[in-house]
Specification:
- The structure is a single chain.
- The chain is an alpha/beta fold.
- Helix content is 33%, strand content 14%.
- The strands form 3 sheets. The chain has a 7-stranded mixed beta sheet with strand order 8-7-9-10-11-14-15. It has a 6-stranded mixed beta sheet with strand order 1-3-2-4-5-6, sandwiched between helices. A two-stranded antiparallel ribbon has the order 12-13.
- A hairpin with a 5-residue loop joins strand 14 (481-486) and strand 15.
- Helix 2 (68-83) runs parallel beside helix 3 and helix 4 runs parallel beside helix 5.
- Mean pLDDT is 88; it is low at 1-19 and 429-439.
Length: 507
């Protein structure tokens, strides 16, 4: 084959015509290709490593529809604070904002947020007509259903503690495992905390935390004062054995400790307790069976160591068995009964009071407005914040909202503990280095969370739930405890104010 052979110069694919692209077109094509690859990779990254949701809001994005109005009020107050261009601190209210799967009702969650807002409003606006920095902002931190996003919430608080001037975390939810883990993590960061409803005994003396609610052991001592005259027949302990619920566990332990075995062969209450596990299915059916066992016994007293949510499933069948219809039966429990203390429709009572007219239910409450009638244990200037005489009073801002579950009152006092600690640190309450306020350095009026943690155990103040000071375990000393009787209609009667082993603190 010669060099001139035409087969060697023929293109392999005669129909294809190659053309060199213009440099601009080439760069555009490459850029589009790279962009497409990056978009694809970002999608894969998001699927494999999703970006954690933003759990902190200043009210601009309500965590749930249930909190839409109160979130808007907080957003407005927060914006007002920023507009004053003076020193400010933030309170981070952390708790599960969605009631699904938990033991706290949607109403109580809303009341908790309202209580913190009330404390914020009074700290900012009721200062004798002049600004008194630091002003107070409120951040809402949703740590997920039953606290399952506690780790993400703690991390986001840590990341914003400086930029948002976070003085302390308040609220903290209820006494369950996820709450404990969050408290431990925040404590390691030396971020101050105030618990408003965590009463489990084993949460005492937690690093950087105090609590304004009386511990279970004090509640048990208080409510046992409603026991009928003791007989030789010991009470029956009904115990929730949910391993994640420290409240129920400690409540049972505290009840049992008050009834030690008698004689060499005596059994403790825990040896003969009736048990159910609220974390497992069919707990209502189990409680029905336990009610039948109580009514078949000779005991006339039941110590209910469980959540208020499960109380109706026990009381309803208790009233139906003949053994409990013809004798006095007293049920005693702790402050979580507040979750079912609300008016019920006439055709849906908690139990049939006509069939069991001698069934009485008492509980130790964290707070209750009717207790304010006893001026020995409450400061009227503080409790008046919850009235309607002032435009910033609770009933003026939130007409129709209830205070019977104690949530707004306790949340207010938790926030007030932090406000008092900050005030003490900067000297605006008459103690500390008040002269610093005139130095023009806002940092002196914005104490860090670690400084607030150091100050909190030393604060003393009048709360709406009673006079508050803290012991060596960071628990309130001789805290006022209202004793209430719960009726089948959800209505409650105020019985008296008491405390643990002593009289309630009165100053």
């Amino acid at each position: 084959m010669s060099d001139a052979d035409p087969r060697q110069s023929r293109p392999l694919h005669p129909s294809v015509r190659w053309k060199v692209a213009h440099p601009v077109q080439f760069r555009f094509a490459v850029s589009a290709f790279v962009l497409a690859v990056l978009v694809a990779l970002s999608g894969i990254t998001y699927v494999l490593w999703p970006r954690p949701p933003v759990l902190i809001t200043d009210g601009g994005k309500p965590p749930t529809d249930n909190l839409r109005r109160i979130s808007g009020l907080i957003e407005e107050e927060n914006a007002w604070v920023k507009d004053q261009h003076v020193a400010w601190v933030s309170l981070a209210l952390m708790m599960p904002m969605d009631p699904a799967g938990g033991t706290v009702s949607a109403d109580s969650i809303r009341h908790t947020v309202e209580g913190v807002y009330l404390a914020q409003r009074w700290a900012n606006r009721h200062t004798e007509g002049k600004l008194s920095p630091p002003l107070v902002r409120v951040l809402l931190v949703d740590d997920g259903k039953v606290g399952t996003k506690w780790k993400e919430a703690v991390n986001q608080i840590r990341d914003k503690v400086s930029s948002e001037h976070i003085a302390a975390v308040v609220g903290l939810g209820v006494s369950i495992d996820t709450t404990r883990w969050a408290i431990e993590a925040l404590g390691k960061q030396r971020i101050a905390m105030v618990g408003s409803s965590i009463s489990a005994d084993d949460l005492k003396n937690m690093r950087a935390m105090v609590r304004v609610v009386p511990p279970n052991k004090d509640q048990v001592t208080a409510v046992l004062g409603e026991l009928p005259k003791r007989t030789s027949v010991p009470p029956v302990l009904v115990q929730d054995t949910n391993p994640a619920d420290a409240y129920a566990k400690d409540l049972g332990t505290d009840f049992a400790a008050k009834f030690p075995p008698s004689g060499s062969r005596g059994k403790s209450l825990t040896d003969s307790q009736l048990s159910f596990d609220s974390s497992l299915p069919a707990s209502n059916q189990v409680l029905n069976g336990l009610a039948q066992q109580v009514c078949s016994s000779s005991s006339n007293t039941v110590l209910f160591a469980g959540r208020g949510r499960d109380l109706p499933a026990f009381l309803s069948p208790l009233a139906t068995y003949s053994g409990c219809q013809d004798r006095d039966v007293t049920v005693l429990t702790g402050d979580d009964a507040e979750q079912v203390a609300r008016p019920l429709p006439p055709n849906a009572p908690m139990w049939n009071a006509t069939a069991a007219p001698r069934l009485h239910v008492y509980y130790a409450a964290s707070a209750y407005p009717d207790a304010w009638s006893d001026a020995s244990y409450y400061n009227k200037a503080v409790t008046d914040r919850f009235g309607a005489t002032d435009k910033d009073g609770f009933r003026s801002i939130f007409p129709g909202e209830q205070l019977g579950d104690g949530a707004a009152i306790m949340a207010h006092d938790g926030a007030l503990a932090v406000i008092t600690a900050v005030s003490d640190l900067v000297g605006t309450s008459g103690s500390g280095a008040g002269k610093q306020a005139s130095d023009g350095d806002d940092s002196l009026l914005e104490p860090p969370a670690s400084a607030v943690a150091n100050q909190l155990p030393s604060v003393k103040f009048a709360g709406a739930s009673g006079w508050i000071a803290f012991d060596g375990n960071h628990d309130p000393v001789d805290k006022a405890i209202p004793i209430l009787e719960l009726h089948s209609t959800g209505r409650v009667d105020f019985i008296r104010v008491t405390s643990g082993d002593k009289q309630p603190a009165n100053r």
